């Protein structure tokens, strides 16, 4: 059976636009989704990211959380006939406040998988308070329970397989320990890329404030160099048929360009197409 990726809707957050794209529309507030991803069709159900803990915790970043009953993780899984205890692996693209807030709802025999460098980075004090204490302390507790945690060393080992057809690789962007999750689908490789990309239109399609051909715009929220961010985005556009960020709808990629957007399942029908030469700045 072919692997499929189902998008889970964990709610929305309101934040400043320049957080999404560096220097773009400073002071303007935008509402963006927070997605998780359920990988089905393999040996075990796999979940990528768990969203944010509650609306109140987003206030620590000066953001507004918009999470309602339907967005609760147990309700999102129930739409696919699953309970919390049915998830075998939770993979984290990284551990920021809106990505790892619901791990404590899962039993200790659900294995949380993350890049060891991300765990180190989360307790370094860099980018605080994007790593809230309740989320990180729960992960520390998991370290001492058999099978509750699996660390990857992606900068040393290269890609590591989780189940057949699903593997992780170092993202090389956003945070020092961010990782991408790669899934073999019937229509090509899909990459769940966390926050390496926030906004396809403003970073890639119309790439605001950028003159050069096919030069992506970086986000306003990264810990590495701008060159590393650009290179990581270009790598995604070069290597994968589908890209799935956490705060924008999935995209289909051809010849390093966005050719369509998808809804809540990958592979799936494209809901719209993008003119070929919209890479030029407006």
From TrEMBL:
Residues 32-202 form the Metallo-beta-lactamase domain. It holds the Pfam family Lactamase_B. Its EC number is 3.1.1.81. It is an enzyme of class 3 (hydrolase). Keywords: Hydrolase, Metal-binding, Zinc. GO terms for molecular function: acyl-L-homoserine-lactone lactonohydrolase activity; metal ion binding. PANTHER family: BLR3078 PROTEIN (PTHR42978:SF3), QUORUM-QUENCHING LACTONASE YTNP-RELATED-RELATED (PTHR42978). Belongs to the metallo-beta-lactamase superfamily. This is N-acyl homoserine lactonase.
């Amino acid at each position: 059976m072919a692997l499929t990726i189902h998008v889970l809707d964990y709610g929305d957050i309101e934040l400043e636009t320049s957080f999404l794209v560096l220097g773009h529309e400073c002071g303007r507030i935008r509402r963006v989704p927070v997605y998780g991803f359920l990988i089905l069709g393999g040996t075990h159900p796999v979940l990528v990211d768990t969203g944010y803990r509650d609306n109140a915790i987003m206030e620590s970043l000066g953001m507004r959380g918009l999470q309602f009953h339907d967005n609760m993780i147990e309700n999102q899984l129930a739409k696919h006939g699953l309970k919390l205890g049915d998830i075998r692996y939770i993979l984290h693209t990284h551990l920021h406040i809106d990505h790892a807030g619901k791990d404590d709802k899962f039993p200790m025999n659900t294995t949380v998988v993350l890049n060891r460098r991300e765990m180190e980075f989360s307790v370094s004090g860099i980018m605080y308070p994007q790593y809230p204490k309740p989320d990180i302390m729960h992960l520390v507790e998991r370290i001492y329970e058999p099978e509750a945690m699996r660390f990857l060393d992606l900068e040393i080992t290269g890609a590591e397989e989780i189940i057949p057809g699903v593997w992780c690789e170092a993202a090389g962007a956003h945070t020092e320990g961010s990782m991408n999750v790669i899934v073999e689908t019937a229509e090509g490789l899909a990459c769940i890329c966390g926050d390496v990309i926030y906004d396809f239109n403003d970073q890639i399609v119309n790439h605001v404030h950028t003159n050069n051909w096919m030069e992506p715009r970086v986000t306003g929220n990264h810990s590495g160099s701008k060159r590393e961010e650009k290179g990581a985005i270009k790598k995604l556009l070069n290597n994968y048929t589908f890209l799935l960020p956490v705060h924008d709808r999935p995209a289909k990629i051809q010849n390093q360009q966005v050719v369509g957007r998808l809804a809540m399942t990958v592979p799936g029908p494209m809901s719209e197409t993008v003119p070929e030469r919209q890479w030029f700045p407006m």
